[in-house]
Specification:
Layout (H helix, E strand, L loop, with lengths): L1 E7 L2 E8 L4 E5 L10 H7 L4 E5 L16 H15 L5 E5 L1 H12 L4 E5 L8 H18 L6 H14 L15 E4 L9 H10 L3 E2 L1
Parallel strand pairs: 3-4, 3-5, 5-6, 6-7, 7-8
Antiparallel strand pairs: 1-2, 2-4
């Protein structure tokens, strides 16, 4: 599998790519990285051009001290696809990666969406109070040496709070086919989130 860094919006995103033909772009969730997709990439790359990348602040990508809003993450994806020469991609998003995929689909053309354990919002207040400290702990550990971890952790934590409210979707905003996948025992993104999403997207299947 080929891997490289691609500079977008003043950060270097770590990108892994394998295969040819129709492009599938995989977007991991918060705390994830490209390795979340290893088995899927291995299975799909014989038939597709599979692209996975680390979001800014994750994996091997640059960790700037600020700039983790949903809008910025969406623009990162747009610029990345532009540099890869990809138009009308199939986007596969997991958890918060699903929100990025939805945000992208509202602004730009896509072919299809595959949304895994995702929804129109992030987490309930109670879940955010639990997950928030985990984000801080993660960035504390990963950025300890550079001494920038606190700013990154706080910025990302605030962005997670703000991102709990996402733009209202109407059926005409995202008129492309969408496959929604959820686990019936998922406590972070329970099935009701996926059901809400299905009701908003007129061409979706749960």
């Amino acid at each position: 599998m080929a891997s490289r860094y691609i500079k977008v919006n003043k950060v270097n995103l770590f990108v892994r790519e394998r295969g040819v033909n129709k492009p599938l772009v995989f977007i991991h969730g918060a705390l994830g990285d490209t390795h979340n997709w290893d088995e899927i990439i291995a299975n799909l790359s014989p038939q597709y051009r599979v692209i996975a990348y680390d979001l800014r602040g994750h994996g091997r990508s640059t960790r700037p001290p600020f700039g983790y809003s949903l809008k910025i993450l969406t623009e990162d994806l747009h610029e990345l696809l532009h540099r890869l020469g990809i138009t009308r991609p199939v986007l596969v998003g997991h958890s918060y990666g699903g929100l990025i995929a939805l945000s992208y689909a509202i602004r730009y053309e896509v072919d299809k969406l595959i949304l895994i354990a995702s929804g129109l919002r992030t987490l309930s207040l109670g879940r955010r109070l639990v997950v928030g400290p985990l984000f801080i702990g993660y960035f504390m550990w990963s950025e300890f040496i550079s001494r920038r971890w606190l700013w990154i952790a706080l910025d990302f934590f605030i962005f997670m709070q703000l991102a709990c409210i996402t733009p209202e979707l109407t059926p005409t905003e995202i008129p492309v086919p969408a496959l929604i996948i959820c686990g019936d025992r998922d406590r972070i993104y329970p099935p009701k989130y996926s059901m809400e999403l299905r009701d908003k997207l007129e061409r979706s299947q749960l």
